[in-house]
UniProtKB/TrEMBL annotation:
SUPFAM superfamilies: Eukaryotic type KH-domain (KH-domain type I). Keywords: Repeat, RNA-binding. Residues 27-99 form the K Homology domain. The keyword Disulfide bond does not apply. PANTHER family: KH DOMAIN CONTAINING RNA BINDING PROTEIN. Residues 101-121 are annotated as: Disordered. This is Insulin-like growth factor 2 mRNA-binding protein 3. One of its GO terms (molecular function) is RNA binding.
Amino acid sequence: MWLVSEAQGRIYGKLKEENFFGPKEEVKLEAHIKVPSYAAGRVIGKGGKTVNELQNLTSAEVVVPRDQTPDENDQVVVKITGHFYACQLAQRKIQEILAQVRRQQQQQKTAQSGQPQPRRK
């Protein structure tokens, strides 16, 4: 994810440097993030709460199509559109949600295997 974010930043910087847009022009970015289909609900949240909070926090539009068929890797696409930095922030927040889901899954696997779980400080 960081490579994509860094690449987007460099492209944005280059466009700005080359005066492809004026200082008052809006530059919008549309990013697509593939997320495991089992985690899409966490991005949406109960009643759309999480996605609404993401949109309010970042000012980017975040869309997780409900009728989307997962691809061959059981992933769905989350579409993020907005001002460059808003889109970047939304991407980071979604990655944080996915990391949290992965940690929870790992903890569940560890608990099911009977191995002691590491203590949190």
